[in-house]
What does this fold into?
Amino acid sequence: MKTALDEQAQSSLLLRKLGRIDDLTDDEERAVLNLPMKVKVFDADVDIIRDGDRPSDCAVVLSGFVCRYKILPDGKRQILGLYIPGDMPDLQSFPLQVPDHGVGTLARSNVGLIPHECLQDMLRSYPNLTKAFWRETLIDAAIAREWMIGLGRRSAYQRTAHLLCELHLRMMSVGLARSDGYDLPLTQNELADTLGLSTVHVNRVLQDLRREKLITLRGSALHIPDTRALQAAGEFDPAYLHLTD
Amino acid sequence: MKTALDEQAQSSLLLRKLGRIDDLTDDEERAVLNLPMKVKVFDADVDIIRDGDRPSDCAVVLSGFVCRYKILPDGKRQILGLYIPGDMPDLQSFPLQVPDHGVGTLARSNVGLIPHECLQDMLRSYPNLTKAFWRETLIDAAIAREWMIGLGRRSAYQRTAHLLCELHLRMMSVGLARSDGYDLPLTQNELADTLGLSTVHVNRVLQDLRREKLITLRGSALHIPDTRALQAAGEFDPAYLHLTD
DNA sequence: CGTACGATTGAGAGACTTCAACAAACGTGG
DNA sequence: CCACGTTTGTTGAAGTCTCTCAATCGTACG
It folds into this structure.
């Protein structure tokens, strides 16, 4: 169980993101901090929202790794988004009510759950906050578009390098990465479902990246000796993450 | 040049979409109808917003066909979204200010341009409308996710069938399609850039679809004799379009 | 009637997949 | 603390989907 203090610290993670682009008023900040949030611990590989459910809470990742995914009739899985601490994986379905895919954990995760009504109430009281949340979903969508570009037009090698770069910056922005690497708790199978590849091919691509001295990866410890080089390999341009405007 | 009456008729196209999910008040409806909109005609294959521009207007497609796209360093293009009358192709970048890709026409199109400030003002006056616009962007994002699934995990054949089904329903919903077909003004090359395929392969896939009697396509006239059959071929489930909730 | 763009075809190559087996790492219970 | 089972990672070989290149055909339009 988390203490109240912890929860505040964790709400502030959310606050940091929301306030990243335009400034919130003190009142608005307080409203966000006062959102009632139930913290729940999920094991790895567990559903938070099942496809078709009509969830009553909105999730904030506090620790761990969460993904949005879709399973096709033939059993294939495509991971549609990766969510790290500070992210709200199902904000996309909050205004639409009906999610069209599942949300689940990839690693053991702490997830804050905020009742939809409380969020609704807050947005009614502070309409300007709607824009901040809206923006969050747009950044999420921008990331999805970048993945689309990769899936449609980049090689497996580029796409993989690109993803590793993206996660590096995103992890950095919430203080979970060092400048030369981070903890990547995804199996090669999960990477494959993210990148639209087979597990076998992911394995070979990772070996190529190692051979080129662009990464070392032992267990979940990813080391990136030369950020620039990896970014070049993945044609990575961070503009789409909107981290600094 | 359009008459004032025409413009109203066209604003109402927008209104229909915005009001599709939850009802707007009379005041809100009026605010939308009163948005000042400059109608501009664009030829086919012309940019409306160039990657990196900071646009001053927000676009509404009134007629024709518009797309969002990204060109990669090696010249490859990925089309990220298709926009038909009633759609707002750059609503995604409106709250973020900085677009991370271009928007252009695929066919000769009438586009309504609404100054950002006017939109901002309206949302300030009627904060509840923000949610309606937000929802629009989320449906757009849901479509993008569905494309991601296709790009990552579906065969060229399924993916193509899926896209044809999606456009069919979307065109139907704005009265631009009959139940047995519609006008598809995309070249095979443009389809290829949408589907993440080569032009040659799109050509062969279309021939396969013809051979299976799922479509006939002469010029831009697409005929779908059996909607169900094509949907089955594309594993198409329209839920993600959120057309009816 | 020529020109240009889009559609079509054929042949060969390459990227990625599938299948299948094995090795290594990990967690768990005895 | 070791044995064991399960999961994850690695390797090889064969196959297939899709791409590239390059030529040809059709058709609309000036």
Residues 1-5 of chain A have pLDDT under 50 and may be disordered.
